[in-house]
Amino acid sequence: MTDRSLQSPVPSWDVPPEAAGIRLDKFLAAPDRLGSRGRAADALAKGKVFVNDAEAGGAEAARRLAAGDVVRVWLDRPGSARPRASSRAGELPILFEDKSLIVVNKPAGLLAVPLAGRSGAASAYDCLEGHLRPGGRRRPLVVHRIDRDTSGLVVFAKDPRAQRALKEQFRRRTPERVYWAVVHGHPSPEQGAWRDRLVWDAEALLQKRAHPDEAKGKAAISHYRVLESLSGASLVEIRLETGKRNQIRVQARLHGHTLVGERLYVGRGGAPEPPIAFPRQALHAYRLSFRHPVDGRPLTFEAPLPGDLAVLVARLRAAARARI
Question: Among this protein's residues, is 126 annotated catalytic?
Fold first, then answer.
């Protein structure tokens, strides 16, 4: 068995031939892994376990592993069990707060807002609700959102007037929304724009490239530039001109440079990429600029790469230098 925990931002183990057919929870419970069935069950229940880069939940505890399967445990992924918001204060840094709005740096693994049908999943909204309640009956008001496994900046309003003003800015595409991503390959040219027409597939719950005659197709425009070439990948800055759901994730795939760690938009057009170990889409909301909803002054916030992405970039940078 090969322990790749020193090469990957999360502990990672290959299933050896002699362990073929073993239950996933029993494999994880081994002394040199998580150490007990209880810890294995907790990690599965909280969405921290991945088999071949696909999330394995509690219902897959009895799954039989095959030789060559790769099992990873994202130890620092925020849990899916809904804790008290006060207990998550350290996981949701508040970068700015006044009487009208609040800006947070959301960690990967935490929903931005609660999802229908997933009442047990923790969210940044829940954390802020707990934060605001001691001072009164106010609740955070949603302005925009980012995906669960995307990290970075999100703004919430604290009153309806501010919410309306901020949502209008986003509707008019005036805020600057800049993301950093690690993508497979090396985009050429190193700076340009991705322009597509996308349509949301409500049954598959994903974006698709719209047919030229598809009336529901909407323009999707992202401006990119390569920040650094890495081993088999690139660190890329992407500025949204439009803001469709999953826009960067699907456009990166359509233009031949799928995000490292992407699972939803893999195998949907374009050439296959070599595997690079990472348990989530390597996407981070880095910069957010908008005007204050009350006095109109410009506000800009930046959030540095989180630890897992910084480790990934450092690993790929070192691999690139080793080849020189």
Answer: no
